[in-house]
Amino acid sequence: MRGIEIKEVSKGYKDTKALDHVSVQFEDGKIYALLGRNGAGKSTMLNIISNRIFPDQGEVLVDGKPARENDQVQQNMYLMSEQTLYPAGMKIQQAFQWSKEFYPKFDMEYAMELARMFGLNTKKKVRTLSTGYKSIFKLVLALSVNVPYLFLDEPVLGLDANHREMFYRILLEKYIEEPFTIVISTHLIEEVASVIEHVVILKDGKIVKNCATEELLAGGYRISGKKEMVDIWSQGEDVIGTEMLGTMKTAYVIGSSKEKWKKAPEELEVAKLDLQKMFIQMTNR
Ligand SMILES: Nc1ncnc2c1ncn2[C@@H]1O[C@H](COP(=O)(O)OP(=O)(O)OP(=O)(O)O)[C@@H](O)[C@H]1O
Beta 198-203 vs 31-35: how paired, if at all? Predict the structure, then answer.
């Protein structure tokens, strides 16, 4: 099978279960969002896939082959994360050259072109870059390595709105030209909502949702009105959260049918849910 398969992976630290028997697949050529609140286990998962840390249990297969300490498999994936793996005294251009050693498909010309577009001075040392430009440096690398599996852990940290927009546009252009697997872990959900095809939500080390974005969005509604009425109409629905304000209630439902809500009485206020609101409801309990 092509793609990444995470099988029954667990990882614990002292009294924390960072990942608890997690199984998920990242299919070849799709764009995923890996979502979860602080400490949900996202970075742990990405670090395990890319061999930076090892699981206590379970395994990761890449195109059917074990990823653990397998250089050939690792050459097919790239994790952009908060960590900067380059010697701080190294110049940007040298770091590009270094990357080419491990990633044979690294496109130097493209990297230099991106650096120019983002205003990244390649003669500077990695150490001297501002927070935003450190992110830009890592993003340029991520966009230039040309691997089939790209993992982006909070990729736009410290970037201004223009640079964030530019990054997502370039990422998408690249994907359209030649699709590859992209897994983006971010808290800026609305910014990626239009880009992602599939959503994986982690909570306390477990997967609470794993489905196509379109499917999730299609069935998500916010139902508000008198408590009794909301209770009757939300019966049998997958209610992911509720709120009370006096005698008024709001229920958040997913996987629901559009037809049903067309028939709702006027006293009920029915609105579509966006990804951000769904995420908040699914993870705040
Ligand atoms: N090296 C470590 N030692 C001890 N605990 C750790 C370590 N790394 C992660 N953890 C714990 O494991 C849990 C999952 O952390 P992880 O960094 O994977 O979460 P995350 O979803 O990436 O969070 P965030 O959105 O805040 O980056 C947290 O409770 C965290 O404190």
Answer: parallel
